[in-house]
Amino acid sequence: MTTARTARPGRARSEAARLAILDATRDELAERGYDKLSLDRIAAAAGVGKATIYRWYPAKAALVADGMLTGHLLPHLEVADTGDVRRDVLDWLRASFSTFASPAAGGLIRASIAATAEDAAVAEHYEERVTSVTRAALLARLESGRRARQIRDGAPLEALVESLIGTVLLHVVTRRDPGPAALEATVELLFDGVAVRPA
């Protein structure tokens, strides 16, 4: 019994250190980007030795990948269901741009994209934990809209989802703010292609 009680705090300290490292990684990525990611600064901010980071993460790509797996790096935005699918998608698009307009969130997504371009494992984690989650949420909402007869049967919903995600990523990477009118025009254009046609 004594051994079990004394072992538990050690595990807790290790987990606390891991979470501190991931938090510091998130801050470092947001401020400086993937190319300038410094394990020395991360170790100092997390209050651990650099050897601890190397023991758990042999390369910075592995560190970024773990941050993605644990949800430390990028926020997930829910897609509401108010009964109006077009408005819900527009609201999601607005919320996405509002979130990524901040230097921290925008820096994180640009750094994450840079990491995916460099390392296939990071790209796999990014797809699994970020884009696929967003893709599934949008697709589920569009399918709900189709069942409500707001979207026609046979509409290319997957293509619509890819267009929405691509719109967000393009503007975040290029640091361009499309403005509210352009977002509304984008949604109108996309939904014109999937709307129920008059008999």
Features:
single chain, 9 helices, 199 residues
Describe the structure.
The protein has 199 residues and is mostly helical. It is built from nine helices and no strands. It has helices at 2-32, 39-46, 50-56, 60-69, 85-100, 103-118, 120-147, 157-174, 179-192. Helix 1 crosses helix 6 and helix 4 packs parallel to helix 7 (120-147). Residues 1-12 have low confidence and may be disordered.
- Biggest sheet, open or closed, and with what strands and sense? none
Mean pLDDT: 84
- Percent helix range: over 70%
Give the N-to-C terminal Cα separation: 75 Å
Number of strands: 0
Q: What share of the residues does DSSP label as strand, in percent?
A: under 5%
What's the gist of this structure?
By secondary structure, the protein is mainly alpha-helical. It has nine helices and no strands.
Write the layout of secondary structure elements.
Elements lengths: L1 H31 L6 H8 L3 H7 L3 H10 L15 H16 L2 H16 L1 H28 L9 H18 L4 H14 L7
